[in-house]
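#dry-run=false #mode=assembly
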Amino acid sequence: MFNYYIKVAWISILRHWGLSLLMICAIGLGIGATMTTVTVNYLMSANPIPHKSEQLFYVQLDSWDVNDPFDEGQNPPDQMTFIDSTNLMKAKKAFRQNVQAQAFAVIEPSDPEILPLIVSGRANSADFFAMFDVPFIYGSGWSSSADDNKEQVVVLNKETNDKLYGGENSVGKSIKIDGNMFKIVGVIDTWEPKPRFYDITTGAFNDSEEIFVPFNLIAEEKITRSGNNSCWKPFGDGFKAYLASECIWTQFWVELKTEQDKQAYLAFLNAYVEEQKQFGRFERPMDNRLSNVMQWLENQEVVADDAKMMMAMAIMFLVVCLLNTVGLLLAKFLGKAPEIGLRQALGASKATLFCQYLIESACIGLAGGILGLFLAFLGLIGIEKLYGENMQGLATLDGNMMVLSIVVSLVATLIAGIYPTWRACKVQPAHQLKCQ
Amino acid sequence: MLVMKNINKIFQTEDIQTHALRDFNLTVNEGDFLSVTGPSGSGKTTFLNIAGLLETYTNGDFLLDGKDVGSLNDNGRSKMRNEKIGFVFQSFNLIPDLNLFDNVDVPLRYRGFNAKERKERIEANLERVGLASRMKHLPSQLSGGQQQRVAIARALATDPRFLLADEPTGNLDSEMAKGVMSLLEEINQQGTTIIMVTHDAELAQRATRTIQVKDGRVSELEIVSAQAIA
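#status=ok
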């Protein structure tokens, strides 16, 4: 019977194409608007490293001014001082640990035909690559000993390697960065986690960097740091005074395998802060935090409030579209009352007719869903054009969202179709047959 | 066999009670061709609707082929309607969106026949009413008489025991009406019990039995001889 219901629905849709088209457009518009905003929210709030997001923790210590708390005392500072991050690195109390900061550099290619490149960089520890599962095409990250020995090594991203070496294996070659020679130890494959969870202080949806160098080279002034910097206490002149200051500009991540490890590390942090208090630092009450990836993204409100508001409004718009669809379905099905009466006379039960007309609603919903998918696709292109680079990579419909669009459309239309179908099936066949 | 004993049907609105049938008693035997006459509002159509299980009755007993109709739920009534009863209406009641093949197919779908059997039955019944060559046409492409023939083909497709016809010639001119009437007689001679509501006394005379309904009661019963029909 299912095939028969589909056939009858198709004939009915074609026969009443004007009314059907209105319904399909109403559902399509509602689904299009909703799925556009839902997609943006979904991708913004997606887990960028699902298999280990529970084991990666962002570390926060409250080293801020006792008289003027950071974030009005709601949260500890979102970055860490150089002193604290290097101290925590030296302690090596976690399974893996990574201190990092944003950097920028100028690459002077050996090929005189290629102009110098200004590249975005990340100064990080050796564990960065293993912690965040960075994929490599050639070579690998550097070793911990390279960190300790402040070796001038570099990892290039695929795009930079393509530009400088035509995509060939460049591992082992030397490259001049900011006037210093660096040895290439690895080339990473395309890697664009969205959100870029490992550093959201400089934009949660920015691209990942073009080169990666050891963090310790910042102190050696072999590489120039960039990114956000906040200070609450004056410091003396010179770069060394800056490194020893209470300015926050580093990010610190640890990988902890179990809850016990997490508790142990928190205890270690508390002990560390207690120790630092003896030196006159950390005057604020103890508030050390370990946030896993999703907690950190939520804490930093990666999904903006206006995006949530847009989604809520789009869902309300969908509801309005569905209410319109209820009215149109009601008009269509009540217009078919004589046919419904006749079908009852010919042996259709109310349940059979209910199924038949609900399937007709579903067919309209399916068509509306497909139209909505197309409109969502256009909507996402519009959002990308409106917000520019920040939305690149977010404004795409993945398979999950496509399936969701169709499912939402079908379910919404079926719900919208229940009342009109129920009303239509309540017609008295005797009355309808006599009235024709 | 159709047996109605003391059937009452009361239509109730907020202020008014209307007795459409009062202690209605009737037995229709296998193979009867019963015509039902009576003035407008006498209860003829109400009787036909109750007989066709399209409407419930207020009280009384109604047995259709020995089965107590009052005990059936919607599914049971639908099944019985599909298996035992065929309908022919004054205004044909074909589904305008469907071609003749698909119109005749409707009751067969609800019966659950497979595709092969449905096709055979549709073709055979359209052949029987002389419209096999037009099975892909829409109802709007046919004359009134042809549409009524399709409605008869649809009614017969499930091999019903009873054919209920409500003014089957009411919308046809006299020539077409004669043709449809001849077809009904032929169907009756082949064993189908026919109950036909009509205003037309001449047509009523062609049935083997005639009853008159007045004020919701069977007020007159007349047996017409087979010779009179001829």
